[in-house]
């Protein structure tokens, strides 16, 4: 097995030699392993049981784990050299990793994560950013960037990462692979460095649905059950309005696949903004605590705010002491979030926790045991390396409005690739109720092939000229509002933001900016 692994790396190195031809255009050196790995190692499975016992379920598969999972004898690096320097080697291997090895799979290495596994971008200045095999000039997404890249580049059959607010789903979408965020709490987080204890979930990347399901069933330790077909597939229309690429192509692919496998009668449409507004009353309480004005903020935007506040609050509770004592050099954007004063009362933190409880109930009631919710995974295609776009309010608001649904509710979500649009990977996500993991994996296995068959529909779809013109006009007006806001001309800023909303009423940033201006005006 050891010689097999060594030969694998030689073959991969030879096969990838041609990739260096790209480096002149990209102005960066692409490593033979695409910069995915931070540590090569080998954990071998036990011998096969004697017949007539069945072989181990994961026999023949190899995998990698993000550098947040403990492996005996190695320091868990958490994406930062200062963390590596100040911590001792692990004395035990994470139970999740052990379960996969004992199930017959071979672990071949640890992969790069974002600094302190905190962001969703995939860029790490300390260990260099892993190269996105699907779009080398674009970011790979994070926090589990290296794990996604390892699967996308065919170095491993599957890989493990952690998903707090998109750490599995974003890199899966950006690298064009399948990403699975299981239901919160169904897989042990023991032996894993936490980011946000109430949001963290062990996640999984794979290239195909069969491997995903095969590994997923081992991780979830689920007993055999008869496969069920969904009785309702709900397209979240307002979530598709958040997309920065043409939405019709993606929804058409899902519609065609649904009709082929389950019939047109199961397809339904839902407005999640309205649904959550009525079913998650603590969102209104959160809103009233934070905003003193008569402007309206989307419930999805509020949900995104709650998720980010919870992540920041719990991260600081867990790691604040280490950060204060070691003062690690952090990316400016991550440092700004972590070190920002958290102006939250105990009551407001409790409201955020109430939102989490109500969200799980709301999504479970919406989907029941036989429903699948369909949303875009991300609003934007993967941004270019070094792009400032990832720091814009619009990018953040749209991204976390979609990602916070599963993070806050704790429901399970699978990200599925749908080909390319303008040479960038495109994806869609299926969500099932909390605890509906097997049902979700079965559904993905059923529809995956037909989704891929229709993926060229996405590539051919285009925004209408009028829609493009209106978006550009709205952005121009928003910038005028931003300038007025900087000049403390609150009423003028409100007017500009209102005009932008009239031009493009599905942009969460315009509502949030206007609400902030109202707040200042109220003061």
TrEMBL record:
List the transmembrane segments. Answer: 6-23
Which windows of the sequence hold TPR repeats? 474-507
- Is this entry keyworded Magnesium? no
Q: Does the keyword S-adenosyl-L-methionine apply?
A: no
Q: What is the lineage of its organism?
A: Eukaryota, Viridiplantae, Streptophyta, Embryophyta, Tracheophyta
Please provide the record's keywords in A-Z order: Membrane, TPR repeat, Transmembrane, Transmembrane helix
Q: What is this protein called?
A: Amidase domain-containing protein
One Pfam match: Amidase
Ranges for domain Amidase come to 55-212
